[in-house]
Design brief:
The protein is globular, with a radius of gyration of 19 Å. Strand 8 and strand 9 form a beta hairpin. By secondary structure, it is α+β, with helices and mostly antiparallel strands. The chain contains five helices and ten strands. 22% of the residues lie in helices and 31% in strands.
Length: 251
Amino acid sequence: MMRVLLVVAYDGTNYCGWQVQNNGETIEGVLNRELSALFGEEIAVIGASRTDSGVHARGNVAVFDTDTRMPAEKISYALNARLPEDIRVQASRQVPADFHPRKRACTKYYEYRILNREFEQPEFRLNSYFFRRKLDVERMKAACPYFCGEHDFKSFCSVRTQAETTVRILYDLQVEQEGELIRIRVSGNGFLYNMVRIIAGTLIEVGLGVRRPEDIPGILLARDRQAAGPTAPARGLTLAGMTYTPEPEKV
C-alpha cells in the first residue's frame, strides 16, 4: 500500500465544488471514479481544500492510498488520459503513509480576478468577475495592510461555517492591476468558508468609495458577517496553490 499525492488543476465552472455531493458532479467524485476504474480498486481521495461550486484551482492537493504497482510519478499521465479536459493532474508522487493534506501546516494562495470595464469580454467570462463601475485600485491597495496578520475573521466568513475557530493569519494581501484586469492575491495559513470572496466583495466596496480603507479594523472587530461587504461571485476565485511546512518528503 502506498500513499500518493496529486496536485490538481481544474476549471470549476461545470462542477458543484470539490466535495462529493448527491446533487451533481464534483471534482472529488470524478477523481474517485476514474482512479477506481484505473486501478480496479475502491479509491477515495482526501483533498486539502474543499473549493466551492464554480471555484477554480491551479494547485489543489489531494492524496489517496492504493495497492497499485504503477510508479507514483506515472500516475498523473495515466489519470490525465481518463479525466475530462477541465481537470488535469499537474504532478503525482509518493508521500509518507501518515501525510494528511488538511492536518499538515501549510500556506494557501488564492487569486481573485475582476474584469473592470464597460462591456464583458467573452474570454474572461468563466474565470473573472465582470464589474462595470469604475474601481479605485489605489483605495483598494490602501485597505490591504489592515487585513494582514492574525485576526478573528468572523465578519469575513459565511454564517454557515463549521470551523472551530474563526481566527486566521493572513501573510500577504495585494491588489494589482493589469489594464482592465484587477487581481486580488492573498496568502494565509487557512481560510474560512467564503472568506476570500467576502474580502474581495469588501475591497470592491472600498474601490467604489462605499467604504474607507481605514474602516477595515472596525469590520474585523465587529465579528459580524453583516458588517462586511457582499460575497463576490465564485467564478472570479482560483486556488493558486499551497506549500507545506515542512514539505512532505518523497518516499
